[in-house]
Amino acid sequence: AVLPGVLDIGGRYSALSNFGIVPAAIMGVDVARLLKRAQQMRYYCDAYVPAPDNPGVVLGVILGEMAKQGKDKATFILSPKIRSLGIWLEQLIAESTGKSGLGIIPINDEPPVSPSAYGQDRFFVYLRHTPLPDPAQDAQVALLEEAGHPVIRLNLPELIQIGEAFFLWEMATAVAGSVLGINPFDQPNVQESKDYTQTMLREYEEKGRLPEEKPLLVDGGIRIYSADREILSAAGTLNDIAAKHLSHLKQGDYLALTAYLAPTEDNHHTLQQIREMVCARKKIATTLGYGPRFLHSTGQLHKGGPDSGLFIQITADDAEDVPIPKNRYTFGVLNAAQAAGDFLSLNQRHRRIIRIHLTSDVSGGLHRLAQAIDEIL
Q1: β pairing state of 73-78 and 285-290
Q2: Listed range (31-35, 112-116, 162-166, 188-192) with the worst mean pLDDT
Q3: 40: exposed, middle or buried (C-beta count within 10 Å: 0-12, 13-18, 19+)?
Q4: Is the pLDDT of residue 220 over 90?
Q5: How far apart are alpha carbons 260 and 257 in whole angstroms?
Q6: Could you give the CA distance from residue 314 to residue 225 in angstroms, rounded to a whole number?
Q7: What is d(CA 282, CA 255) in angstroms, rounded to the nearest whole number?
Q8: Confidence (pLDDT) at 168
Q9: With contact defined as beta carbons under 8 Å apart, do 197 and 338 qualify?
């Protein structure tokens, strides 16, 4: 069967279109029931419903006003059964609001720390699956409220109500965009990285290699790259460079790990350790995106949103590679070009970024990076 989509629905708003519903049907989801619940939320959010009674408007105004008051780190806590919803919420909010130097920064899947380690730039959203809540999360949220952190609680009694959640958050994100004074339906900076990537791929087709800059430091299986003059002067050891880079963090910033790596259990565990250390010891929000997927998620926010991100891009040589039919380059070359294009785009916007390339032992290299950050902090 061919099930056409609607061309003018942006990808992040398409969960309830054929784009999202056909896969749900193939998975065996009761689509009619899911859409019925979504339709109910649509009625609740309709134009005839007064703003104070309209859940999409209320949630959207809260999101927008929090950001305007400096609480722009929307930190999500999701019950285990609905944890994967966080990656969609991250894309929806980041790509919709991160532009014109403004934006709400979604913090997804961040390891929990003590309430005292969270800065005043945070608010928390607890999406709780009421039949199977996590007692540790309940306790964590209670402590956050006791410490005075703003918490939004949203209950999900049935998993099929995910349809309601999709519509509610799409509506709220649009309203938040209006509050911030930006267009929540475009993504003007996503194309930048694409254009740089295409330029690099054309060079590869002409010369048989991607453009390569000289690393600041080669330390065993680790190479480090940066255009930051301060970091250039500090280029002695991995610890020296990481220390200088992390010294740029200030309250209200966030650390963004962008990893062009396979999201294996070991890699993810080490990257999450880094997030936990930085969050607990620097009181800074942290994000983690796997490339190139995140380019269509938080990538827009990184370039168009507030200049509060400190970026560590992590790349690696591919243990295995796969050719792309009818192209001279492979998937590994494409991935490397996308990483390089994103690095160049962030540099052109004077974002604070270093690239750490792991040439052979990816797991060992990540552990070395985590150890260095542990020693620095």
Answers
A1: unpaired
A2: 188-192
A3: middle
A4: no
A5: 10
A6: 10
A7: 10
A8: 98
A9: yes
The share of the chain scoring above pLDDT 90, in percent, equals 89
pLDDT of residue 41: 98
φ/ψ bin of 65: left (φ > 0), alpha (ψ from -120 to 50), beta (otherwise): alpha
Task: Provide the mean pLDDT of the chain.
Answer: 95
What are 355's strand-pairing partners? 225, 313
219 has pLDDT over 90: no
SS3 for the chain is CCCCCCCCCCHHHCCCCHHHHHHHHHHCCCHHHHHHHHHHHHHHCCCCCCHHHCHHHHHHHHHHHHHHCCCCEEEEEECHHHCCHHHHHHHHHHHHHCECCECCEEECCCCCCCHHHCCCCEEEEEEEECCCCCHHHHHHHHHHHHCCCCEEEEEECCHHHHHHHHHHHHHHHHHHHHHHCCCCCCCCCHHHHHHHHHHHHHHHHHHCCCCCCCCCEEECCEEEEECCHHHHHCECEHHHHHHHHHCCCCCCCEEEEEECCCCCHHHHHHHHHHHHHHHHHHCCEEEEEECCHHHHCCHHHHHHCCCCEEEEEEEECCCCCCECCCCCCEHHHHHHHHHHHHHHHHHHCCCEEEEEEECCCHHHHHHHHHHHHHHHC
* pLDDT in the model for residue 319: 84
265-306 per-position pLDDT tens digit = 999 999 999 999 999 999 999 999 999 999 989 999 999 999
Of 117-121, 193-197, 273-277, 280-284, which range is least confident? 193-197
Q: Tokens at residue 316, please?
A: 């690696």
Query: Nearest 5°: phi and psi at 126?
Result: -105, 110
Q: The tokens of 305 are what?
A: 């949103």
